[in-house]
Design goal:
The structure holds three protein chains of three kinds.
Chain A lengths: L1 H8 L5 H4 L2 H33 L15 H10 L11 H17 L18 H10 L1 H11 L3 H31 L22 H10 L11 H16 L24 H26 L14 H8 L1 H19 L7 H20 L3 H30 L5 H29 L1
Helix pairs in contact in A: 3-11, 3-15, 4-11, 5-7, 5-11, 7-8, 8-10, 8-16, 9-11, 10-11, 10-16, 11-15, 13-14
Chain B lengths: L1 H8 L3 E7 L2 E6 L4 H10 L5 E9 L7 E9 L4 E9 L4 E3 L8 H12 L2 E3 L29 H8 L6
Parallel strand pairs in B: 2-5, 6-7
Antiparallel strand pairs in B: 1-2, 3-4, 4-5
Chain C lengths: L37 H4 L17 E6 L11 E7 L2 E8 L7 H5 L4 H9 L6 H16 L5 H30 L3 H21 L8 E2 L2 E2 L7 H23 L3 H7 L7 H7 L4 H5 L6 H4 L20 H24 L19 E9 L2 E9 L7 E5 L1 H13 L4 H11 L3 H5 L1
Antiparallel strand pairs in C: 1-2, 2-3, 4-5, 6-7, 7-8
Helix pairs in contact in C: 3-4, 4-5, 5-6, 5-12, 5-14, 6-7, 7-12, 13-14
Classes of the chains: A mainly alpha, B alpha/beta, C alpha+beta.
C-alpha cells in the first residue's frame, strides 16, 4: 500500500497516466478545493472590483474589506427556503443545476497546471474540455423547462442558442491553435526545422509544443494567433453568459433567465457552475495561446539569472498582497468597533506574508513556479471578465447571434485557413 | 386669421379675443370638427398642445371644452373653446392630431365627456370599472368609488 | 396602494394585487383589478381566444408589469409579440394618479405650489417655475430681474440633474452599469447646491409666486462656478464610455425611430422632438424668465432614433452649463420678490403658460374665478404625451428595444399620472 503511494512520487507523469488511483484522488481533491476557493474568491473580487469601477466600495462590513462576504453569502443561501414552483417537474428541476455543476467541474481533470501537475493528461484533452463543457447547455435547457414558467423558458432557450452558436466560433479558434502544434519551425513565423512537429490534442502536449517552438501561440504567425485568441476570448465570454452577452440573465430585461425560479442553494449551484465554467474556459485560453505554465519571456530572457528573477515572483506577489493588507490595516478607523476587523485583516495579511516567505524557500520555489504562472494568467482573465461586465452595455439577442455567426465564425474560418496555408508554406 | 374664419363661419364663432396676450376663440359645438380641421390644414396649427375641460355646474352648458393649439411655423398659440352640456358628445380630434388620443381619454375619464369617433375611448388614469368622473365639481375631494374599492382591493374603504 | 390611509391602521389590509408580473396571457377572467372587462380593453390587440396556452399560437401577449426594474416607475406595458418582434403595445397608466388637479381646486394658489413639485419629481424646480410663472401671468405681475436670473440658474441646474439621472437609468437599462454611478455622483453636487439654497434636494419648492423666497446664500455663485468647472469633464467621461462604444451604437441606432411628421402629429415635445429634426425649443420660441438674455444653441438630431435622443440630451447638458455660466456672471442685484398681495385673488380669466421642462413642454392652464382658490388647474404633462408615442416607436422592434425606448422617452410616472 505504502509502496503504491510512494511509487508515484518518483515518476514524472500525471497520476492518471501513471495509473495511480490514490494520487489521482489526491489531485482531484486539491483541484476541486482549489476551484471552490477560486470561485469564492472570484465572487468577492467581482463585487469589490465592480464596486470600485462604479466609484463605490463594495462589501466592507462582513470581515475586513468584505473578505468574509462569500462565506456569509453561502450561509445565507444555504439557509434560505427552497422554493419549487408548484407545477414544476420536480426531478428535472432538481437535476438541472447538478448537470451544470458536474459539466463545469468535470473539465478540470485535464487542466494542466504544470508539466506533470494535472490530474491526467488525456491525449484528446482539448476535445474533452470543449465537449464536456458543452454539456452545461443541457442543464440550462432543463432548468428553463422544469420551471414551467414563461420567462425562464424564453431565457433558457435564448441562453442555449447563444452558447451553442459561440461554441462553433470557439471551435474554429481552438482548431487553428491545435494546427499550430503540428508545425516544425521555431519562432513566430516558424522558419527552419527545429521541432518534432507532432500535432497533439492533449493539453500538456499543446503547451509543450509552444515550448518547443519557442513562442506562445498568441504571437505565432502574428497576427493570426492574436486574432484566433481574440475570437476565443470573445466567444468564451458569450459561452459563459457573461456581460456583454448576458441578455439571458439580465435583470433589467423581461426575465431573469433560466434561473428565475431557483432559490437558495440551488441558485448558488448555478452561480458556482458559471464561475467554474469561466475559470475552465480561461484555462483553455491560457493553455492554448498564453503558454500555459511558462513564465513570461521563456525564450528571450533565458539563463539562470532570469530564471531566478522570475522564480521570485510568487513570493513577491504574496508579499505584495500582504503589504496591501497591512496598508489596509493602517487605514482602518481607530474605533473600538473596528478592532476585530483590524485584527482580522492583520491576521490575513500575516498569513499572506507567511505564504510569501514560504514561497521563497528553494524547494518550494521550484515546484510552485508552474502552478503560480498558470494561476496568475487565469486570474488576469478573471479580472478581464469583471472589467467587461463593468464597462459594456448589453448586446440585444439578435445582435448577439449576429456577432456569433456572421462575424466571429467567418473570421475564425479565415484564420484557420490562413494558418493552415502558412503552416504548409513556411 | 380670425376675420377670415369669422367670415366663413359667421355665427359659429361666438367670440374671439385676447386676454393677457393669449388668443382664444369660443365657438359653437357644431362647427368644432370642421374648424379644427381647417386650423390644422389651412392655418398650420399642426401641434395640438392640450385638450382639456372645465366644469361649470351652475351654467346651462356645463362644460367648457378647450383645445390649445400651436403652430410651429407661425409661433402662435390659440385656444379654441366650446361649451357643451352634460351628456353631449363632441367629435373627436384624433383624426386631426394623433396626440388627441390620450388627451381625450383623460377628459373622458375625468369629466365624462364622450368623443365621437375616438378609436378607443376608455378610462386612462382611473381603473376601468370606476364609476364617477372625479374632476366634476360634484365629486368630492376624498370621494372614491367604494364599490370598486371593495370589490377589487379587498378592503372596506379607501379612506 | 393601500399604504398611508389615515384611520385604518388597526385593520390589516389584505392586498390582492395579482397584476405583478403576471406572465400568463390575459384572459377574460383576468385578475388585474384595473381591467375587469378585458375583452373590450384588449380589443385592439385582437385577443379573441384567450384560453390557448402560450405555446399554441404564434402571438404572445405578455405583460411588463407595474413592478419592473426598467419601467421607471409604475408603468404597465402589455406587449403583443410574435416571437421576439413586437406587434403592438398598450400602456396602462394611472398607478400613480394622485388627483393633483382636483386638489388644486381646494387649495389656494400659494398652498398648491408644493404639490406641483411632486409631479415630475426628478425636475421639481421646473415644475415650480412653470406654475409660478403661470400664476404670475394671471395676476399680471412680473418677477424682478434678479429673481428671474436665480430661477434660470436653478432650472438649468435641474435640467442638468434630470438629464444625468436619465442617462444613468437609460444606460442601466441597456446594460451598462457604470454610468449610473458616475451620473449619480455628479448629480450629488447639484443636489448639494439645492440643499444649501432651499433645504431640499428632491422636491425643492424653490420658487414662490412673484419671485423667489430665499436670497442666494453666501457662496452661491462660488459653488455654482465650481460646479461649472467640475461638470464638463464629467460629461466627457460619460461620452467616452458610451458615445463611440460599438455595443451602445448597435443598441441605440435605428431603434425607436420616430419621423418628424409623426412626432409633430403625436405632439411629442422636448428632446424627443428635437432629435427628430424639429428645431424648436420654448426657451427660444417663446422665451420666459430671462432666457432671452442668454446665448445658447438648440441641438437637434437627424434620424429620430434613440442615439439621436442621446446626443441631443448630452448636448443639452452642455448648453445648460453655458446658460448657467452666463447667468452667474451677469446676475443683477435687486429685490427677489415682486409686490404680490398677501391674499391672491386673480381676476376672472384663464391663462395657459408653458415652459421647456427637461422632459418637454410642461404647460399649466389655470382658470380663475376671482377667488383665492383656482377654479381649475390643468397640467399638460410632457411625459404623458410622449408616452403615447411608444406604440408608434416600437412597432416591429424587438422586446429588448421596448425597454430601451421607454428609457429614451424619459418619462416620469409622477408626471404621467399626476
Amino acid at each position: 500500500m505504502l509502496d503504491y503511494i510512494t511509487s508515484y512520487l518518483s515518476s514524472n507523469t500525471t497520476p492518471g497516466q501513471a495509473g495511480n488511483v490514490f494520487w489521482a484522488l489526491v489531485y482531484i481533491m486539491i483541484v476541486f478545493g482549489g476551484v471552490s476557493v477560486a470561485v469564492m474568491a472570484m465572487n468577492w473580487l467581482e463585487r469589490k472590483a465592480l464596486a470600485h469601477f462604479q466609484i463605490r466600495l463594495g462589501p466592507m462590513r462582513v470581515g475586513p474589506h468584505g473578505l468574509l462576504q462569500p462565506i456569509a453569502d453561502a450561509i445565507k443561501l444555504m439557509t434560505k427556503e427552497d422554493i419549487i414552483p408548484a407545477e414544476a417537474d420536480k426531478f428535472v428541476f432538481w437535476i438541472a443545476p447538478l448537470i451544470i455543476l458536474c459539466a463545469s467541474f468535470a473539465v478540470y481533470i485535464v487542466v494542466p497546471f504544470g508539466p506533470t501537475h494535472a490530474i491526467t493528461d488525456l491525449n484528446i484533452g482539448i476535445l474533452f474540455m470543449l465537449g464536456v463543457s458543452s454539456l452545461s447547455v443541457l442543464g440550462v435547457v432543463m432548468a428553463g423547462w422544469a420551471s414551467n414558467s414563461h420567462y425562464p423558458l424564453i431565457g433558457a432557450l435564448r441562453s442555449s442558442a447563444q452558447m451553442v452558436s459561440y461554441e462553433v466560433a470557439m471551435g474554429m479558434a481552438v482548431v487553428s491553435a491545435v494546427l499550430m502544434t503540428s508545425l516544425h519551425g521555431i519562432g513566430p513565423y516558424g522558419v527552419g526545422v527545429g521541432t518534432s512537429g507532432t500535432g497533439t490534442l492533449s493539453m500538456i502536449g499543446i503547451v509543450q509544443a509552444q515550448q518547443e517552438q519557442h513562442v506562445w501561440f498568441l504571437f505565432k504567425f502574428f497576427p493570426l494567433g492574436f486574432i484566433a485568441f481574440g475570437i476565443f476570448a470573445i466567444a468564451m465570454v458569450a459561452e459563459t453568459n457573461r456581460a456583454p452577452f448576458d441578455l439571458p440573465e439580465a435583470e433589467s430585461e423581461l426575465t431573469a433567465g433560466f434561473h428565475t425560479e431557483y432559490s437558495g442553494l440551488r441558485w448558488s449551484l448555478f452561480m458556482l457552475g458559471e464561475y467554474a465554467a469561466m475559470i475552465a474556459v480561461s484555462s483553455i485560453a491560457v493553455t492554448l495561446w498564453l503558454g500555459g505554465w511558462f513564465r513570461p519571456f521563456p525564450n528571450t530572457l533565458t539563463g539562470d539569472t532570469w530564471d531566478l528573477v522570475f522564480s521570485l515572483f510568487p513570493g513577491l506577489t504574496f508579499l505584495a498582497l500582504a503589504a496591501i493588507a497591512f496598508v489596509g490595516v493602517r487605514r482602518m478607523p481607530k474605533h473600538p468597533y473596528f478592532r476585530v476587523q483590524t485584527i482580522g485583516l492583520a491576521g490575513f495579511g500575516a498569513v499572506l506574508g507567511l505564504i510569501g516567505l514560504i514561497l521563497f524557500v528553494p524547494p518550494v520555489r521550484d515546484r510552485i513556479q508552474d502552478i503560480f504562472w498558470f494561476v496568475a494568467k487565469v486570474a488576469g482573465f478573471m479580472y478581464l471578465y469583471i472589467w467587461y461586465r463593468a464597462t459594456f452595455p448589453r448586446y440585444r439577442f439578435d445582435q448577439l447571434m449576429k456577432v456569433g455567426w456572421k462575424v466571429l465564425l467567418p473570421i475564425g474560418i479565415g484564420v484557420l485557413i490562413l494558418t493552415a496555408i502558412l503552416g504548409v508554406v513556411l | 386669421m380670425v376675420v377670415k374664419l369669422k367670415g366663413q363661419y359667421g355665427s359659429g364663432i361666438r367670440e374671439a379675443s385676447t386676454y393677457l396676450g393669449q388668443d382664444y376663440m369660443v365657438v359653437e359645438p357644431s362647427i368644432v370638427a370642421e374648424l379644427l380641421q381647417i386650423l390644422r390644414d389651412r392655418e398650420q396649427f399642426d401641434y395640438c398642445v392640450d385638450v382639456t375641460a372645465v366644469h361649470y355646474p351652475e351654467r346651462e352648458k356645463q362644460f367648457d371644452l378647450v383645445w390649445i393649439l400651436y403652430s410651429f411655423s407661425r409661433n402662435e398659440r390659440i385656444r379654441v373653446k366650446t361649451m357643451i352640456g352634460d351628456g353631449e358628445s363632441v367629435p373627436s380630434a384624433v383624426s386631426v392630431w394623433t396626440t388627441a388620443n390620450w388627451l381625450e381619454r383623460e377628459v373622458y375619464d375625468m369629466f365624462g365627456i364622450r368623443f365621437d369617433g375616438h378609436p378607443d375611448l376608455k378610462r386612462i388614469l382611473l381603473p376601468d370599472g370606476w364609476k364617477g368622473h372625479p374632476l366634476r365639481k360634484d365629486y368630492g375631494i376624498i370621494q372614491q368609488d367604494q364599490e370598486w374599492v371593495r370589490a377589487n382591493l379587498g378592503i372596506e374603504s379607501g379612506q | 396602494m393601500g399604504a398611508g390611509q389615515p384611520g385604518n391602521r388597526e385593520r390589516p389590509i389584505i392586498m390582492t394585487d395579482r397584476t405583478i408580473t403576471d406572465p400568463k396571457p390575459i384572459d377574460t377572467t383576468t385578475s388585474d383589478p384595473k381591467t375587469s372587462d378585458s375583452a373590450r380593453f384588449l380589443s385592439h390587440l385582437e385577443l379573441d381566444q384567450p384560453d390557448k396556452t402560450f405555446l399554441d399560437s404564434n402571438e404572445l401577449v405578455i405583460n411588463m408589469g407595474p413592478q419592473h426594474p426598467a419601467t421607471h416607475g409604475v408603468l404597465r406595458v402589455i406587449l403583443k409579440l410574435d416571437g421576439e418582434k413586437v406587434l403592438g403595445t398598450e400602456c396602462v397608466i394611472g398607478y400613480l394618479h394622485r388627483g393633483v388637479e382636483k386638489i388644486a381646486e381646494n387649495r389656494t394658489y400659494t398652498m398648491f405650489n408644493p404639490y406641483v413639485d411632486r409631479m415630475d419629481y426628478v425636475a421639481a424646480v421646473s415644475n415650480g417655475l412653470g406654475y409660478c410663472e403661470a400664476v404670475e401671468k394671471l395676476l399680471n405681475i412680473e418677477a424682478p430681474p434678479r429673481a428671474k436670473y436665480i430661477r434660470v440658474i436653478l432650472t438649468e441646474l435641474n435640467r442638468m440633474a434630470s438629464h444625468q439621472l436619465w442617462l444613468g437609468t437609460h444606460a442601466l437599462d441597456i446594460g451598462a452599469m457604470t454610468p449610473l454611478f458616475y451620473t449619480f455622483r455628479d448629480r450629488e453636487e447639484i443636489l448639494k447646491i439645492f440643499e444649501k439654497y432651499c433645504g431640499a434636494r428632491l422636491t425643492t419648492h424653490a420658487f414662490r409666486i412673484g419671485g423667489c423666497q430665499y436670497e442666494t446664500y453666501e457662496g452661491f455663485e462660488r459653488d455654482v462656478t465650481k460646479f461649472l468647472d467640475f461638470a464638463p469633464p464629467k460629461i466627457d467621461e460619460y461620452e467616452e464610455l458610451l458615445t463611440t462604444n460599438r455595443i451602445w451604437l448597435e443598441r441605440t441606432k435605428n431603434v425607436g425611430v420616430i419621423s418628424r411628421a409623426d412626432a409633430i402629429a403625436l405632439g411629442v415635445t422636448g428632446p424627443v422632438l428635437r432629435a427628430s429634426g424639429v428645431k424648436w425649443d420654448l426657451r427660444k420660441a417663446q422665451p420666459y424668465a430671462a432666457y432671452s438674455d442668454f446665448d445658447f444653441e438648440i441641438p437637434i438630431g437627424a434620424n429620430g432614433d434613440t442615439y439621436d435622443r442621446y446626443t441631443v440630451r448630452m448636448e443639452e447638458m452642455r448648453q445648460s452649463l453655458r446658460i448657467i455660466r452666463q447667468a452667474v456672471e451677469r446676475i443683477p442685484e435687486g429685490p427677489i420678490m415682486a409686490k404680490v398681495p398677501k391674499v391672491m385673488k386673480p381676476p376672472v380669466g384663464e391663462v395657459y403658460h408653458s415652459i421647456e421642462a427637461p422632459k418637454g413642454e410642461l404647460g399649466y392652464f389655470i382658470v380663475s374665478d376671482g377667488s383665492t382658490q383656482p377654479y381649475r388647474v390643468r397640467v399638460r404633462p410632457p411625459s404623458f404625451v410622449n408616452l403615447q408615442a411608444l406604440d408608434v416607436m416600437v412597432r416591429g422592434a424587438l422586446v429588448a428595444d421596448v425597454i430601451a425606448v421607454i428609457g429614451t422617452l424619459d418619462i416620469v410616472l409622477g408626471e404621467v399620472d399626476r
